[in-house]
Design goal:
- α3 runs parallel beside α4.
- The strands form three sheets. The protein has a six-stranded parallel β-sheet with strand order 5-2-6-7-1-8, sandwiched between helices.
- The chain has five helices and eleven strands.
- By secondary structure, it is an alpha/beta fold.
- The protein has a domain of 139 residues: P-loop containing nucleotide triphosphate hydrolases (Rossmann fold).
- Helix content is 24%, strand content 21%.
Length: 223
């Protein structure tokens, strides 16, 4: 990650401990959500590249639980990858960013698969915006395969300064807003643990109508 370093003065201690920083205009906290396979990671990696191309330093985070491309790797379906800091539920993201920012200025923080954040971690991300004046951009799913909000997604919907949707489409042509989970035989399953990391072909993005009908493919003629 490139960019010149500029140390920040210290004077105010944020809630819950951590290094002290001057207050000032808050950096924006943004949250982008979508159904599966809408290009969230691609958007994240492109935004990160835009910062780094201008000589700015960024930090990327991804949950340890999502190790499909390897731990600490953000990967898009287009084959683009970038290293990231893996985090678990008890990691204080504010302290990680504050420490790195004190050593060398951070221009933006990106969080992939943000649905796996805890409520506390979402609040700590808001501290990054409000006390360190660093923009934080989170990318993730809104709901699980049962149509329920993830903990991180629910908290981000309430705390983010800006929320935007990355759109994708159902097999019928409508906007896809829901996710179906399939078993190894390709049959839709409605019960099970909320978190089940697997290949992308185990999840299908569909519109609400086909979510209710449990139709993952374009063979339903009653659209």
């Amino acid at each position: 990650m490139s960019g010149g370093c500029r140390q920040k003065p210290t004077s105010v201690r944020p809630p819950n401990g951590g290094p002290q920083w001057n207050p000032g205009p808050s950096g924006p906290g943004g949250r982008q959500y979508s159904a599966m396979n809408a290009g969230k990671s691609t958007n994240l990696l492109q935004s990160d590249y835009n910062y780094r191309e201008r000589g700015m330093r960024t930090l990327l985070f991804t949950p340890k639980i999502d190790n499909r491309a390897g731990e600490g790797i953000i990967s898009s379906r287009l084959g683009v990858q970038a290293p990231a800091i893996p985090f678990s539920a008890d990691d204080d993201l504010f302290l990680i960013v504050a420490t790195a920012h004190k050593e060398c200025e951070i221009s933006c923080v990106f969080v992939d698969e943000a649905q796996f954040l805890t409520r506390w971690q979402v609040h700590r991300l808001s501290d990054i915006c409000d006390y360190l004046e660093i923009p934080v951009l989170c990318y993730g799913l809104r709901t699980d395969f049962q149509g329920n909000l993830f903990e991180g997604s629910a908290e981000l919907l309430g705390w983010a300064d800006k929320i935007s949707e990355i759109k994708t489409i159902c097999h019928c042509g409508r906007k896809a807003t829901m996710v179906l989970r399939l078993n190894e035989q390709g049959i839709v399953v409605r019960e099970g643990d909320q978190v089940q990391i697997g290949d992308n072909d185990r999840y299908v993005s569909v519109c609400r109508v086909h979510f209710k009908r449990g139709v993952p493919k374009a063979f339903d003629q009653s659209r």
